[in-house]
Structure formats: structure tokens, C-alpha cells
Design goal:
The complex is a heterodimer. Chain A is mainly alpha-helical. Chain A has ten helices and four strands; from the N terminus they run ββαααββααααααα. Chain A has two domains: about 180 residues, no CATH class; about 90 residues, no CATH class. In chain A, the strands form two sheets. In chain A, strands 1-2 form a two-stranded antiparallel sheet. Chain A has a two-stranded antiparallel ribbon with strand order 3-4. By secondary structure, chain B is of the alpha/beta class. Chain B folds into two domains: about 240 residues, P-loop containing nucleotide triphosphate hydrolases (Rossmann fold, 3-Layer(aba) Sandwich); about 40 residues, no CATH class. In chain B, about 40% of the residues lie in helices and about 20% in strands. Chain B has a six-stranded mixed sheet with strand order 6-7-8-3-9-10, with helices on both faces. In chain B, strands 2-1-4-5 form a four-stranded antiparallel sheet, with helices on one face. Chain B is globular, with a radius of gyration of 20 Å. Classes of the chains: A mainly alpha, B alpha/beta. Chains A and B meet through strand 1, helix 5, helix 6, helix 7 and helix 8 of A and helix 3, helix 4 and helix 5 of B.
Chain lengths: ~290, ~290
Amino acid sequence: MRRRKTLLGMVPLESPLYQFHPLTRMIGLVVLAVLPLFVLMPEANLVFLAALFVLFAYARVDISRLRIYLPLMVTVAFFMFAITVLAPDRRPDDIRLQVLGVTVYYQPLMRTFASYIRIMAMLFATIFYFSTNHERDMLVALRAARVPFAVSYVLGLSIRSAAMFLEDLTTVRQAEQARGLDDSGLSIKDKLKMYGLYLIPLFTMSLRRADEISNALFARGYTISGRTITGGPRPDYVLSQYRFRARDAVASGALIVLFVGVAALGWRYGAFQLADSPLNRWLAGALQP
Amino acid sequence: MAAVVIRDLHWRYENAREPALRGCDLEVEEGAFLGIIGPNEAGKTTLVSCIKGLIPHSAHGVYQGSVRVFGGEVRQKTALQLAAEVGMVFADPEAQFTAMTVEEELLLGAENMGLPLPLIAERLAWVSELTGIADLLQKSPYDISGGQKQRVAIASVLAMQPRILILDEPTSMIDPLGKRQVFEILRRLRTETSLTLIVVEHNIEDLAPLADRLAVVAEGRVARVGTPREILEDTGFLGALGLAAPEVTELFARLRADGLHNGAVPLALDEAVAEGRALLAGARGAP
């Protein structure tokens, strides 16, 4: 599978998703990433996650690369469940259980489980977007949504700056290693101290880069107001290469209807809540003493 | 017509003890190729920054004297006016990138100028062909080689079609192949366009054959201006400033000083080969 590197990861070189305008894809991000906020029922969010994985396959994303998010998933789970076990948000009628000699409560655990699945649904919806859109798509989507050029440009610079900051950090670390620093034997306290010292060269480098970028923008006649030398509006060549077609209108409309429908059902009518979960009802019944 | 006229220019950076420029005078004719050489910290970059208007528009300090570009005082011009008249390529190509893809990098200046879309498309095609980067347009400017980065930087300025193009040590951070490619672009610009070119460069051997004139900057002043031959033949003057003429020029200057050569001093390898052949042929024919 041929892929293209972006500042934020990899995207497939070819994907059926690319037939849609970047704005449609960004509407997809907003809808899919926000939708789980209205849903706590774990079954619904698991179906949503399964549908997302079908979308990953449809969009020709290399699913094996999603392994890199495994440590993140495990870490989030560890902290969420550890807090629930150690400091549960307990109510008097919660079902008390003994697991390996530790007292836990069913309802807080179930709520944590449902929240975890919800967070994963939101996380993978976001990962899906960044796995199928490169930086240019994001900027085109913002400009198509009439976001001022200065705002989209600053956003682009910020994305770039994040990558440059990491690059600078690597440079500083490699320079220290080249001079014999071996941090593998350092205590956590010393490592923290060392990272604190990294801030000095990183701050200096950031200032220098900010100065250079400012000069580069001046050299290219950039003005924050977006004023051009002719006094007319700023043309957007990249945006002009994209067309918002009928299929985009249909897809965007369907996404918005889906969003409004789920939001209305969840918010106004209390659908998709934990109390509606068959799994929750079955487990609560089975564990009731 | 003079493209650039600098008169008695002084500049001292804020918080600096010594001025960077101490009374510079320089004229550059429209369409000419001026090479600027000089030792480190001589004031070369400061001088061209004054032509571009980065000084005083983007720097703080004490400014005296006059820099006129096509008759207008640089201090009175806006960033947009200066962008249309003077383009500048910096030594570190990466430092001038602000966009996500090479294509957007090339478009930024042309869009800032408010050019119509068909003209932007035309310029995009022209600069991509001229600098040989057509296959890089969709790539990130950070994921290409040093030489390619500098070609992108040059292309992004050329897309604005300024009347003056300044290149500040464009080959100082790239490999030998990248250097050759940059000088090839300069050669094409010299022959195919009417651009006024101002190039600050340490690589005198490659610069001299292209330049109409060389300006030597030392200790914040324009110490001498002349044709490359006039400047490079005076190897003593260059040596006193810590500069070295091309080795072939040095060789023939010494031969001439020793009375073994009385022809022109070559500036480049090809010229030296021709002079050397003539010298050897003369020696064989001698009694």
C-alpha cells in the first residue's frame, strides 16, 4: 500500500475518500468525533468503533499502523480504571464485589468502561481524519469554510512548529549523546532536571525560527490583513483546484442529519444512555447478590 | 537605469557596539549581475537586507543614509511594494519555508500580490520547470534534500517575478551537487531573463564567470567594485582581506608576476585550460 508522509503521520496515496471535497471530510471529522459525546451506551459506541474500522478499510488506511496507538489506549485505560478502583464515585446502592481481595463497585466500573469506550470512539474518529487528510486538506477545508486566510495560515504554521519543535529536541538530544551523555543510568529526578535544561536551547531556537519566519513572510509580501498589492481580494490557487460537488452536498447533508438526529435523541430524549445498555442490565442482574 | 542606489549608508543594530555598515556607496544597473564577496562579518548580509528592506522594516537599530530601489526610498515602501520589486533568498532554505507543501510555498508570494489565478498557474509552471522541482510540488518542503530545498526557495521568490533578485549565500548550506544546480539556475536567469541579480557568495570560482561586476565588502564598507577580472587579478588585495581568488587565477597571477605568463589571468577552469595549453604550446615552440 503506497502512502504519503505528512507532518502528523501517514495517509494513503490513493483513497476513495479523496473524491470528496476536504470540507466534506472536515465536516465528517466534526460529526464523527463529537457524536460519541451524546452516547454513553457502550454497545452503541462499540458499533460506532466497528463502523469506523470499516471506514478505515474503505479509505485504504493501513490498519496495522494503528498499533502505534496501543500504548495510548492501555495508558488511558490504566489511569481511568485505577482511579475508579482506588477512589470510586460510589453510591449507597452500588453492587459491591471482591476481586483478588480488593473491594470494587460494579456501577462506577461500568460507568468508567462506558466512558472509556466513548473516549476511544472519539479518539479513533480523530485518528481516522488525520489518517486520510494531509495538512493541505485541512487548510483547504478551513478556507472553503471562509475561515480568514490569516487564521488558517497561523494554524498551518502552528502544526509545522510542533513538528519543528520535536525536530529541534531530537537535535539537542543527539548533540548531547554525541558528547557522551548516557541518560539510561539517570534517576527520574535527574532526567527531569536534564529535560528542564533542554528548554534553554529549545527556547533560543524557537526565537530564532520565529525571527526567520517573520523575515520570510515579509520577503514574500505577507500582510496579516490579507491585503494585496492590487488592493483586491487575496486569490487562493489551491482552493481553486477543488470543487464542492453534488456528492459533497449529499454526504455533508447526511452527516449533519446524522449529527442532529443522534444529538436530539441523546440530549433531548435521553437515548443511548447507560441505563439503556442491555450489557449493563444483564451484568447488574447477574452480579446482584 | 539604476536599479539600486546606495548612498552613505550607515546601520547599527540595536544593542550592538559597533555599526555593521559604515558609509556604504553602491550602484547596481538594471539587468546587471552583481556578485558580493567579502570576509565573514563584513556586512554583506546587512547590506543586502537594506536593499530588500528587511532593514529597517523588520530590524531595530540606527539607520542613516539612503537606499533607493528604482528611484524610490526603501524606507518609504511597504512590504508589498518591496516584495514586488525585490525578492530575497536566504542562506538557510528551511528558514524561509512557511507552508505545508512545496506548491503552497511557491504560491504564497504570488497570492500575496493578488495576481489572477491563470497568471499564478502560469508562474507556477514556469518556476517549477526553471528550477527542476515539478515532481516535488506535493511534497513537504522539509522532506526534500538540501539542494532541492534551496531550489524551492529560489522558485518561491521567482514566482513573484521581482525586478531584483537577491541571493544571500545560497550555496553555503548545501552539497556540491546542489551548488552546481543553484549556479545553473543563476546561469539560466542571467541569460533568459532581464532580472537584476545580486548574489552574496563565498564561492568566487563559480560566481566570477557569471557576474558582470563584483563588489568587495569589508569592515562595513564597499571596499571595491569592478569587473571580476579587475577584482580577482589583484590577489594581494584579496589576500589582505582573507579572501582567496580561484586557484587557477592565483596560479596564473603568480606565473605573470614571475614573467612566465603575459596573457590574461583566467577566472575559471575552462579559461585556465585554454591559457595553459597556449602557454605549453609556446614553451614547446621556444628554442
